[in-house]
Amino acid sequence: MNIKSFDLSHVSVKDEPAFRQAAAALLSFAASAGHIGAYHSFVCAGLAAILPSASPAVFIGSTLYYLLFCSFTEGLVQLCSILVISVIMFAFSHSSFKDSPAFTASVCSGVLLIFNFAVSAAAPVSSRAVIIGAIGSVMTGCFVFSCKTLQNELSLTRMLSLGGKNSVHASVIFVTVISLLASFDLFFNPGRVIGCTVLLILARRSGSSGGAAVGALTALAVLIGDPSLAVNTMLLATAGLVCGAFAELGVLALSVSFLAVCAVGLATVGGSDSVKMFIDASLGSIAFAAIPSGALRRASEKLFGGRDASDTISRATASRLRFAASSLGEIRQQLALVSAAMDKKLKQAPLSETVFDCMCRSCEYCCICHRSAPASAEGFQRLEKQTLSYSGLSDDDVRRSFPGCRFPELVSDSFNYAYKSYVDGRAAQLHIAEMRSLVSEQLCVTEDILSDLSCRVGQIRSVDKVLSERVRDAFSRLGCKGAAACVYLDEAGFRHIEVLLSSGVAAEPMQLAVMVSDICDCFFDLPSVSVSDRLTRLLFSELPAYTVTSGSFSASSTENGYSGDTYSFVKASSCECFAVLSDGMGTGKRARLDSMFAVSLASKLLTAGASMRSAHRLINSVLRVKGWDESFATLDILRFDLCSGAAELLKAGAAPTYLYRDGSVKRFCGDSMPVGMIGGCAPDEFSFKLFDGDTVIMTSDGVSEETVRNALEATSGVSPKVLAQKMGELAMECSEGGRRDDISIAVFGVAFKNTDNDI
Questions:
Q1: Over residues 46-57, mean pLDDT
Q2: Which secondary structure element, helix H or strand E, spans residue 78, and what is its range?
Q3: pTM of the predicted model, to two decimals?
Q4: Domain range spanning residue 696?
Q5: 169 inside domain
Q6: How many domains does the chain contain in total?
Q7: Residue 488 forms beta bridges with which residues?
Q8: pLDDT tens digits, 728-755
Q9: What is the rounded distance in angstroms from the CA atom of residue 229 to the CA atom of residue 189?
Q10: Distances (CA, A) of 621 to 87, 313, 584, 688
Q11: Percent of the chain surpassing pLDDT 70
Q12: Nearest 5°: phi and psi at 271?
C-alpha cells in the first residue's frame, strides 16, 4: 500500500450482505445434514442465534435440506426453533444484552428444549430420542455460548487468541464441528481427517500434551457424530501423545510416528473400521505435510501468541521487572521488622525511675523520704506528671510531695535534666522513625513503578520482527545510525512502534507517521517524542477511535503576580494522554514552585510508564522531605484512553472535576489530603466511559460549581478553548469586590471517529 497516494475521502469498508446470506444458507444446509448418533443435529438452530441478521438464510438453507433429503416432519423441531429464535433475537436487537453469550445461549437451549419436549409429547417417540434431543439442545447452547464469546473478543480486540480460557471455548467448537463432519458417510470420514490434521499441528506446537488433548477431543466428537466409529478413534489420544515426542525432529518424523502408532493400534484392536481409520489418519498426515511451514507458523502466532526471540525477550523483561519489584517488597518488610525491633529496644525509662536511681537510691536520707513505698511511688508519679505537663519542675513542687527531703533543689534539677534528655531522645527517635518511614515509602513507590513497567511490558502480545527491521532500515536511510525499532501488538490488538535514536532525525513528525504507516500497512498517529540523556524515543500508535481537543485558562489572584496553579497536558502516546493540574498552598512564588514541581514530576513519571497512583505516592514522598515548612500542593490527574474510550481521575486535595453530557453535569469530588502533607494518605480515584460529545472540565479551587454550570448554560456548541475562556471570565467576575484566588480551568471535548470513513 502506498499511503502517500491514498485519498481517504473515497475509501470505505462496506459489508457484503449477499455473500453473508449465501454463506449462512450454505452453513445451515451442511449443519442440517449432520447427526447426533442416528438423529439430526440442532446446530442449524444455533446458527440462527449466532447470526441473527442472517436468520432468513439459515431457515431457507435448513428447509431446503429437509425438503430434498428428508421429510419436513423430521426437521420440525429445528425449523420451528429457528423461527422462534429469530423472532426473540429481533425483539431484543436494541437491548443492552443482545450480544451477551449467556443470554444468546439460554435462548437457544431453552427454545430447543421446549420444542423437543412438545414434539415428543405430540408424537409417540422413544425415550432414547427424547434424551438425545435434550443432550443435543444443551450441546447447541454450549456451542452458541463459545462462538459468541470468541466473536465478542474478536470484535473488541480485532484478534482471536485461543490461549488461556479461550482454549475451552475453542474445544467446544472443535468438538461440535468434528461431530457434524464425522456423521457423513463417505469412503473417508471428514471429521477424523480434520481431527488428525489439527492433532499433528498442535503436537508440533505444544508437544505431547497438545497432541493427546486433540486426540481425546476428536474421539469424543466422533463418539457423538457416529458412535460406531468411536472404538478405533480412541487410538488418536495415544497416537497424539507418542508423536508429540518427535515434534522437534520435523514434519516427516512427526507424521511417520503418528501413522506408525495408528497402524500398530489398529492391528491390535482390529474391527471393520480399521482400514477406513488408517485412510483417515493418512489423509490427515498428507494435509498436515501440505501446509506451508511459514503459513502454519504465522497462524500459530496469531492464534496462540508469538514465540520468537523478540517475544521471549519481552516476556523475560517483564518477569525480571516483577522479580525486582518483589525483591524490593521483601527488603521493605525486613526494614519494617528491624524498625519495630529497634523501637522496642530503645524504649525510654520513666522519669521517676531515672531520678530515683540517680539521686535517691544513694542518698543517706532515703529511708526517711521513702519510709512508705506506696506513698513514695505516688509522690514520684505526681512529680513526673507535673514535669511532663509543665515542661519542668520547681523546688516547691518537690517539697510539697516530699516534705522531709533534704535536697529538693537537686531532685528538681534531676527531673528537669531527665526531662530534657527524654525530649531530646524522643525527638531523635521520631526523626529516625520518620526517616525509616520515608525510606520504606520510597522503596514501596519504586516497587509500584517497577510493577507498572512490568505490566506495560507484559501487555506486548506479539512482536513483528520483519516489520521492526523494515522500520529500523527506514530510519537508517534518514541518517539515524544505530536506530532501534520494535513493532508490536498490545493485548487490546492495537499496533505500536517504538523507535530509539541516539541522534535527531531530519524529518517532520507527519513525514515519519506517513513513512511507518506505509511500511506497516496501517494508519499511525503523529509520534510521541521524549528525550532523556541524549536518547530520543519515538512512540507511534494506531489512530485511536476517539479524539480529544482541549482549551485552558489561567489567571493570578493579584495583578502581574505569580499564579500558584500549574497545568500541563501530556501525550504519552496516540492512545493515552494525561492532564495534570496542581494548586500550590498559598499564593505567589512559593505556591507556584510547589505546583510546578508536582506537575513536572508527574508528567515525567506518567510519560515513562508509571501509573497515576505510583506518581502520586512518589510526589507525596518527595514533597515531605523537601525541607520546607508546609510544602503542600493539590494533585489532579485525568487520564484519557482514546482507544478503548475510557477516562480515569486521581485527586489529592483537588477541586471538583465536571463531566458534561447530554445537558447534565456530573461532579467528581473527593476528600483526600494534598500531596506532601502526611504519608500513607490514599487519593480519590474515579473512572467513567467516554461517549461522543462529552465535555470534561478540570478546575482549581478558584472556580465554583455555579460558575461552571452558568458557563455551560450560556455557551452551546463552542470549542473547548472558547468555553474555557468564557468560564474563566465568569469566575473573575464572580470574585470582583472580594479576595480572588488563583484561577485555572482546563476543558476537554471528546469526539468519536467514524472509522468507516477512516479506513
A1: 87
A2: helix 76-91
A3: 0.48
A4: 546-757
A5: no
A6: 5
A7: 463, 496
A8: 888 888 765 556 678 899 999 999 875 4
A9: 9
A10: 61, 33, 16, 28
A11: 78
A12: 110, 160
